[in-house]
């Protein structure tokens, strides 16, 4: 689980960081835009901030909440950590900065580069940003990243399901067959 998740996460992180850095270059210096900086005027243009009012914000909350699914993996992996009293608080404390960089940072860049009412009408803003920098295979790269994100989700599901079934068997709430682990601590029977 950990090795696969490391690589899946690395692919996603590198892609988002590249998009944020490239996007800031477009906003501030006009990279990929014939040297004309786009600025941040799109944040309040085309109807201003919150053009659909508070109702639009409330309607978007379900999508925002979906983005935070998976945080429970911190608790599930705590049993696997070498020094959980040190590593788990460190992981939890860094969540704020990760959200700020990956979610807020990428949204800031996308909404600065493209008017809010055009986002998604001409394709993925991630693809459009990389294509403006001259990367012709941007769509393929982003599709690969989306596939790794889906595989990461599946990987997390398999990990958590196996661990839960193993724990249930340990507490006699599932067949004892699933309560055995390998020498390395992997609940292989629960993963079948």
Description of the molecule:
This protein has 192 residues and is mainly α. 14% of the residues are buried. Helices cover 64% and strands 0% of the residues. The chain is elongated.
What secondary-structure arrangement, pairings included, does this model have?
Blueprint: H1 2-29, H2 53-67, H3 73-77, H4 84-93, H5 95-113, H6 125-132, H7 138-170, H8 188-191
Helix pairs in contact: 1-5, 1-7, 6-7
Entry summary:
With 192 residues, the protein is mainly alpha-helical.
Task: For this entry, give a set of tags.
192 residues; mainly alpha; 64% helix; elongated
Structural class from helices and strands? mainly alpha
Q: What is the N-to-C succession of helices and strands?
A: HHHHHHHH
State the distance separating the first and last CA atoms.
14 Å
How many distinct beta strands? Answer: 0
Number of domains: 1
Largest beta-sheet characterization: none
Strand content: under 5%
What is the assembly state of the chains in this entry?
single chain
Given as residue ranges, the uncertain stretches (5+ residues, pLDDT < 50) are none
**Percent in helix:** 55-70%
Mean pLDDT rating: 86
Q: Report the total helices.
A: 8
| Alpha carbon gyration radius | 21 Å
Q: How would you sum up the global shape?
A: elongated
């Amino acid at each position: 689980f950990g090795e696969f998740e490391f690589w899946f996460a690395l692919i996603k992180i590198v892609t988002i960081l590249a998009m944020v850095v490239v996007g800031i270059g477009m906003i501030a210096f006009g990279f990929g835009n014939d040297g004309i900086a786009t600025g941040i005027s799109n944040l309040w243009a085309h109807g201003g901030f919150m053009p659909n009012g508070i109702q639009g914000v409330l309607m978007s909350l379900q999508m925002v909440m979906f983005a935070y699914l998976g945080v429970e993996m911190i608790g599930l992996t705590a049993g696997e950590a070498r020094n959980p009293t040190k590593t788990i608080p460190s992981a939890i404390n860094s969540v704020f900065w990760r959200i700020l960089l990956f979610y807020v940072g990428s949204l800031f860049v996308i909404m600065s580069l493209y008017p809010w009412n055009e986002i998604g009408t001409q394709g993925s803003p991630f693809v459009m940003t990389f294509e403006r920098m001259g990367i012709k295979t941007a769509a393929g790269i982003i599709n690969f990243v989306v596939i790794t994100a889906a595989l990461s989700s599946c990987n997390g599901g398999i990990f958590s399901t196996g661990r839960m079934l193993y724990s249930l068997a340990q507490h006699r709430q599932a067949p004892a067959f699933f309560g055995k682990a390998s020498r390395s601590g992997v609940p292989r029977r629960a993963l079948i």
